Amino acid sequence: EFYLQQIRQQQHLNAYIEVFEAEALERAAQLDRNKPIEQPFPPLFGVVVGIKDVLCYEGHVVSAASRMLECFKAPYSATCIERLMEAGAIIIGRLNCDEFAMGSSNENSAFGPTLNALDNDRVPGGSSGGSAVAVQAGLCMVSLGSDTGGSVRQPADFTGVYGLKPSYGRISRYGLIAYASSFDQVGIFSKNIEDAALVLETIAGADAFDSTSSPVPVPAYSKELKAPEKPYKFAYFRDAVEHPSLDPEIKAALVNKFEALKTAGHQVEAVEFPLLDYIVPTYYILTTAEASSNLSRFDGVRYGHRNKQPVEDLADFYAQNRSEGFGPEVRRRILLGSFVLSAGYYDAYFTKAQQVRRRLFDQTQLIFKDFDAILGPTAPTPAFRFGEKKDDPIAMYLGDIYTVFANLTGLPAISLPIFWHSNGMPFSLQVMTNRFEELSLLQVSASLV
Ligand code: GLN
Q1: What is the pLDDT of residues 117-175, one digit of tens each?
Q2: ipTM of this predicted complex?
Q3: Which of 99, 319, 321, 409 lies at a 20 to 30 A Cα distance from 311?
Q4: Distance from residue 180's CA to the centre of ligand 1 (Å)
Q5: Closest of 168, 112, 164 to residue 142, by C-alpha
Q6: Which domains does the chain have, with CATH numbers?
Q7: Kind of pairing, strands 48-52 and 90-95?
Q8: Whose CA is nearest to atom 4 of ligand 1?
Q9: Dist. CA 246 → ligand 1 center (Å)
Q10: Is 84 helix (H, G, I), strand (E, B) or coil?
Q11: d(CA 276, CA 281)
């Protein structure tokens, strides 16, 4: 009842696309009726969770914030949602985002943007903007998002909450509407590290329905957060901190933090990373290629919006359905993706980008031979104003420079909201560790905040 009231009071933020009001109350009542007499309670007993509208929840609409799926009801639940329910959670509603998780500002939602609760003229980030604002404004306890190229960490950074993207394969993608399958990962928004750890250990782990989910065992993260104090070896990319697009106040805050860590006995070293300017192009070539394939199923026959007007032939029917169902950014990416995969361009773009991706991964492995974690910014600027970048897709894409690296390499990464800008907005320190080292990621993070 408390959260439903908060949601009503903050309706102008447009964080939820749909609130499951009656159902959430019934679920809460049912949990109360069946309350275990003795401890331990199920780990998320009565925890109120909001879910990004790209996660299937059986019997509920899942729209991907698109007209294309406006009326589509999920026939089954995502594995992560099943696991939340088994752990006693209450799913309170589905959260706004950029259409098909494509965007960095929530301005691409077919249902209007979510507003940043700290400054309603500023974007909440994207694509999981609704999930970030729901936690920021206290409209649920924790929320789920998806992170293909920063969509959990960047909105967490813009709204001042914690945003965790686990390793690729750590959480099953079964029931997550695909954007770019080799990048997509479910992520968690929370007010602190403990909550993120608890949700992660509940939903992570192998799943027979997703062959890319990892069999690596899942530790009890929340119980092992407090690691024995020891000096850590931190790396940061010199080219990232020196990058001309980085806001000077963010740079200064990072440099100060590095100095403070050194004073506290840790090692903090700059490593060269000359590939930095290639990662945004590599990301957009590979993800649009995968998107053009993944989104081909939304043709109005198998899935999605169906045009009611007379058509010439089948090709025209598809074209009508897709032109009406998809917004401009999604159409742009499908075109880009089809282009980079087309005969004659495939090797120049797609194959090349895959080679860069491999190089990035190899370089990371070298770094983790010598270091425990990589530190850096999450985004080059704090939350920008609505409209500032909307008509300049390249400027919008370049804002992803610090986040897409973890998705290209499959690393776990977290956004820690520990800084404030003089413009009144928060910003984060981003931490990355090697693949499947979420435990050390969370332990290191606990020592950094
Ligand atoms: N800004 C990234 C993009 O537009 C974020 C995508 C994501 O992580 N879902 O592709």
Answers
A1: 999 999 999 999 999 999 999 999 999 999 999 999 999 999 999 999 999 999 999 99
A2: 0.98
A3: 99
A4: 10
A5: 164
A6: 2-223 (3.90.1300.10)
A7: parallel
A8: 103
A9: 19
A10: helix
A11: 10
